[in-house]
Design a protein that fits this description.
With 262 residues, the chain is mainly alpha-helical. It has 10 helices and 7 strands. 42% of the residues lie in helices and 8% in strands. A 3-stranded antiparallel beta sheet has the order 1-2-3, covered by helices on one side. Strands 4-5 form a two-stranded antiparallel ribbon. The protein has a two-stranded antiparallel sheet with strand order 6-7. Residues 206-250 have a biased composition (Low complexity).
């Protein structure tokens, strides 16, 4: 059981003491109390109320230390403990070629008694080289143990490929945002304007995938050369329709220069 703190005045100097240790400032003493409050439930098996009374604070103060809070002044006090929600979903399987958490648990369990790599690899049906790389890359560097949850987080973090911000300072989109807001444009209109104007992505500045001018010209010629219609420069419509006889045929005035197939 730890002792509570007390303030002592010695010759006009205030000394802050906690658990038999003197601290020069109150801030250092409070930090030591919070560390002790976190340690007692983990190592001594106390509940939070007992741990709060052991370090000399109320149950309410212990709850603030445990969960953190935001004061009315806007100052945030971080939580002293890391919490995981009881309703947290299990890690999703990324791909069959990667180890998941369910496969990492038996690997860690069989590694503690000292089983060989080949014997451990037979449990999940993996190659011994895969298990060997898993142990070397994802083990705890401090203790040397293989921790499944920690290994899963490290493996998932290495797969992330962060992209540059589209609205970073210096990008075309950064200058378009205030101008578009002054015109009362929607976010979609603001985001698409640099691409329509320059033909480049607002994030990377690279050219977007669009047909080349020659490809566009060939596409226009092929669409205008469909059977039943020909492009004509003298017609006001530009393209004359098929004037073949029939109940569904269009009765437009035929251009004399048209070569529509009947």
């Amino acid at each position: 059981m730890t002792g509570s703190h007390r303030n002592e005045d010695r010759g006009g100097e205030r000394r802050w003491t906690f658990n038999g240790v003197e601290y020069p400032t109150r801030k250092l003493m409070c930090a030591a109390r919070r560390e002790e409050y976190v340690r007692l439930p983990d190592e001594e098996g106390m509940n939070f109320t007992q741990a709060a009374h052991a370090v000399g604070v109320s149950k309410r103060t212990g709850k603030v230390w445990r969960n953190g809070r935001t004061r009315a002044t806007g100052r945030n006090e971080k939580a002293s403990m890391d919490w995981y929600r009881s309703t947290m979903d299990k890690p999703k399987r990324i791909h069959a070629r990667y180890l998941n958490q369910e496969e990492r648990i038996p690997i860690a369990d069989r590694l503690r008694p000292g089983d060989s790599i080949r014997a451990i690899a037979r449990l999940p049906g993996r190659d011994p080289g895969t298990v060997s790389r898993e142990i070397e890359r994802n083990r705890n560097p401090g203790t040397g143990d293989c921790e499944p949850c920690r290994a899963q987080q490290k493996a998932a973090g290495r797969l992330k490929r962060p992209r540059p911000r589209k609205a970073a300072d210096g990008t075309p989109l950064w200058a378009e945002i205030p101008a578009g807001l002054r015109r009362h444009w929607s976010p979609e209109q603001i985001a698409n304007r640099p691409r329509r104007r320059t033909g480049r992505s607002p994030a990377t500045g690279r050219a977007t995938s669009s047909p080349a001018p020659a490809t566009k010209a060939r596409s226009a010629r092929s669409s205008s050369a469909r059977p039943g219609s020909r492009s004509c420069s003298t017609c006001p419509m530009g393209t004359t329709p098929n004037t073949s006889s029939g109940p569904s045929s269009t009765k437009w005035p035929r251009c004399p220069n048209s070569r529509a197939i009947r």
